[in-house]
Amino acid sequence: MKKPADRKASKWGILWGFLLSLLLTGCYGAKSSKKIFNSDLARQLLDAALARSVTDGNGQYYRNAVIRIEAPDYYFTYTGAAGIARADTGETMTVDHQFTIASAGKTMTAVIILQLWEAGALGEKGLDATLGDLSVFPPEVLDALHKINGVSYGREITVRQLLNQTSGLKDVLMDDENGIGDDYPEEYRGYAPGSLNGMTVFDEQKGFERMMDCIQNDMPAGCNRSDYYLSYTWPHWDEKAWVADPSNKMAGLLNFYLGGMNETALWKPGKAFHYADTNYILLGLVIEKLTGNSLHQELRTRIFDPLGMDHTYLAYSTNPPTKPWEGRLSDHWGSNTPLISNGINLSMDWGAGGEISTVQDLSVFIQALADGKLFKERAALEEMLRLPEAIEQPFYAAGIIAWPTDNGWILHHNGAPGSWIEYHTAHHLSIVGTVNDLDGADRFMTLRGDIYSALAEAGLRSANFKTGSVSMSLLETLGGEPPIVLLTALLGSLLIFLSALVVWPIAAIRRQHGSERRMLPSSAACWLSICMILVNLIFLVVFVFTIMRNPVQLLFGFNSFTLSILLLPLLSIVLTAGLIVFSILAWKESFWGIARRIHYSFTTLAAICYVWILAELHLLMLP
């Protein structure tokens, strides 16, 4: 005959078994159900996402954003804009406003290089031709370009290494002679003090703050904006000036790099990945040397004009002049300042992303690229998407991230102001846009996450879209300061879990040599807690290893493998619920002494806390 406590436990066991089967059935049903894409719902959700991205905590417009999504397989196109386009005029942001695309323009530079490769202009070695092979720079320039401990490797750099950012060159905008931007304290915002950005922003005489004092407050009296670094239009390269004075950094972008940064290259060419605008400044110069035309002319002839991109141009170009393609240029913000309205000169981007464009034009470009329309043969596109071998790097191919999914690729590049181009080959879907904010990495990630969520909720069936808002929110958390409460709670829970794993074997040995008989609630609580802790620790180790192996995946949502790992937290919920029930039963029936009551109380609280942490990180979801 069963004792009352055993009968209660049996009932609870049946209940939890039913809940577990219901959970698994729900997972299966979620996978097997089919949806029809709801365009109206998608538009409603995207409108709301755009509005959120440009409003402050008081619901007032304080920034701008514009996006375009084309999904012909779903008969869906969306173009939307929100916010204030210009601080100086107060005009409303529209879908026709132009904006700075920044590093998203690297993809365009890469396309021209691949076109030249396809035409045989790079010689027999093709993309593996070295700068020495091409003879586009004098030998003395190549000898100075890349040095490690006084040894030059500049002639060995290949075109492919420039394209996929493995040349070992430092970033002229972010790094300096003494290190890379990320090596410096947080207050430097990723700009090494001796970098071009570091100089233009932090210089106490001619830097950004002094220029703002001049423009906004006329301080010092009689000052002229042309006296400051951010009013300067940067030449690309002045060889004569370099020969006359190699230390003259102001003569051009490459001159700035050769003014000292070149002496401390990071590693030999091809050994590792380091994102550097220097690579694409060199590629822009290669294009001009090989074709005899300006970079802007080549962009027009090879990409913009054939695709009808009549609202796109390379800023600050004079050959050809940009006037015919100029429209209404929107502001983008930096240091909480509208840069375009204040006349800030951004000519330092050039071949690394100096284009101005619209969402319509960028959508045309990324679709044409993905469809292979920019090349004569499909092999050129395949070569462009070829990833470096045996190098740990963020799936950066030739001027574009090529991220593999379960059934295709996500092609993506973004720029510093939160501009981006993106194409999902599995769905023939393009997403382009900008949040126009150098300090708005959180706005960029949140808007993209909201776009993914909106499309998934409207019926686009994809693990990446379903989990995009979660992964991008997690990326924001990892990229910033972790919330102290979450971090403390996680460390506390892990400490209790590990302590419990140490205590149980000791307790088991003592019971073996004693006469204690364990009742069902006590035994069930013990095994549930062991299983719960093991599940939690296994999930944490596998998930962290999967993510940290290549954090760039957080830009695109979780793939099916990562999503399958998220079954473990759901199992943890079931085990935690069972632990709570049987711990209460064991406590109520006085099966435990004071030591065990304290032990299981702490273990149960740690389990609940762990589930709360996962909920705060939005990691509790059905695959």
Spatial extent as radius of gyration: 29 Å
Strand neighbour order, sheet with most strands? 2-1-13-12-11-10
Mean pLDDT rating: 89
**Proportion of β residues?**
5-15%
Count of extended strands: 13
**Major sheet: size, sense and barrel closure?**
6 strands, antiparallel
Global structural class? alpha+beta
Overall outline: globular
Report the end-to-end length measured between terminal Cα atoms: 43 Å
Percent helix, as a range, is 40-55%
Unreliable segments of 5+ consecutive residues: 1-35
Number of helices: 21
General description of the model:
This protein starts with a helix and ends in a 7-residue tail after the last helix. Strand 4 and strand 5 (151-152) form a beta hairpin. 47% of the residues lie in helices and 9% in strands. The chain has helices spanning 4-32, 39-53, 106-118, 131-134, 139-145, 159-163, 196-202, 208-217, 239-244, 253-257, 277-291, 295-307, 359-370, 378-384, 441-457, 463-479, 484-512, 520-548, 560-565, 567-588, 594-616, and strands at 64-71, 76-83, 99-100, 147-148, 151-152, 313-314, 333-334, 337-338, 355-357, 401-405, 408-415, 419-424, 429-434. The protein has a six-stranded antiparallel sheet with strand order 2-1-13-12-11-10, sandwiched between helices. Strands 3-9-6 form a three-stranded antiparallel sheet. A two-stranded antiparallel ribbon has the order 4-5. Among the domains are: 4-33 and 481-616, no CATH class; 39-102 and 358-468, no CATH class. It has 21 helices and 13 strands. Helix 2 (39-53) packs antiparallel against helix 15 (441-457) and helix 18 (520-548) packs antiparallel against helix 20 (567-588). Residues 1-35 have low confidence and may be disordered. It is an alpha+beta fold.
